[in-house]
């Protein structure tokens, strides 16, 4: 069914707005999916703060120009599924790629990320990258590991020192030795013991 001029303008405005707000836009084909399968894919995308819209190539190109994005690749043919990621820029690509493993009708064919056009191969590579949360968790673990080891190294000698002090306390503490006599008192005692010389 052909779209009226007003419908086309409304769709271009909607696509332009979403392209401007999205952190990435992926292009995919999904011809052959059932209504239930398309609904399932849309729900998965929605849960990850992503959204899928179907548009004609000509309208998508006009919208991309309106959103100050690069010209869309000429390889786009016929109705195209545009997947907008509003949170994690990888989420839309990852969900579509994972969905394609069980539904061969779904194929990533390109995208726009960081102001650059992605080829088919680049869009697949992007979809295979770990998500932001996974990267942050990995980075946190890398930072935490040396700190835990350092804390253990610091804690071990202190624990041993504390045990030694406790054992000494249980045995009566440290015995203080008597201070040695001063050299002055020793000299005086020696001089007092020497016999007096007879006077001539």
Short description:
The protein is 55% helix and 15% strand.
List the helices and strands and how they pair.
Layout: H1 5-21, E1 24-29, H2 35-47, E2 50-56, H3 57-66, E3 79-85, H4 91-100, E4 107-113, E5 116-118, H5 120-128, H6 132-170, H7 183-193
Antiparallel strand pairs: 1-3, 1-4, 2-3, 4-5
Main beta sheet: strand number and arrangement?
A: 5 strands, antiparallel
Distance between the termini: 149 Å
Approximate strand percentage: 15-25%
Briefly note the structural class of the backbone: alpha+beta
Mean pLDDT: 77
- Point out poorly predicted stretches: 188-193
Strand order of the largest sheet: 2-3-1-4-5
- Oligomeric state of this protein: single chain
Q: What is the third-level CATH name, the topology of the domain at 9-129?
A: Alpha-Beta Plaits
- Tell me, what is the CATH class of the domain at 9-129? Alpha Beta
| Radius of gyration from the alpha-carbon trace, in angstroms | 40 Å
SS summary, helix count: 7
Please give the share of residues in helix: 40-55%
Give the H and E element order: HEHEHEHEEHHH
- Based on Cα principal axes, name the global outline: elongated
Task: Return the CATH architecture of the domain at 9-129.
Answer: 2-Layer Sandwich
Strand elements, count: 5
Write the CATH homologous superfamily of the domain at 9-129: Ribosomal protein L10, N-terminal RNA-binding domain
């Amino acid at each position: 069914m052909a779209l009226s001029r007003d419908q086309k303008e409304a769709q271009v405005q909607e696509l332009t707005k979403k392209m401007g707000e999205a952190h990435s836009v992926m292009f995919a084909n999904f011809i052959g999916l059932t209504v239930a399968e398309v609904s399932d894919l849309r729900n998965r995308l929605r849960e990850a703060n992503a959204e899928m819209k179907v548009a004609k190539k000509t309208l998508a190109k006009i919208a991309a120009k309106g959103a100050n994005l690069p010209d869309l690749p000429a390889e786009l043919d016929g109705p195209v599924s545009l997947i907008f990621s509003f949170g994690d820029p990888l989420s839309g690509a990852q969900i579509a790629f994972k969905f394609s493993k069980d539904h061969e009708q779904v194929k990533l064919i390109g995208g726009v990320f960081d102001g650059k056009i992605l080829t088919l191969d680049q869009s697949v590579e992007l979809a295979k990258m770990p998500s932001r949360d996974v990267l942050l968790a990995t980075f946190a673990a890398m930072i935490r590991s040396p700190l835990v080891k350092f804390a253990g190294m610091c804690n071990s000698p202190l624990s041993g020192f504390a045990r030694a002090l406790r054992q000494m306390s249980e045995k009566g503490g440290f015995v203080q030795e008597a201070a040695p006599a001063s050299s002055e008192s020793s000299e005086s005692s020696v001089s007092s013991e020497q016999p007096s010389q007879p006077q001539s």
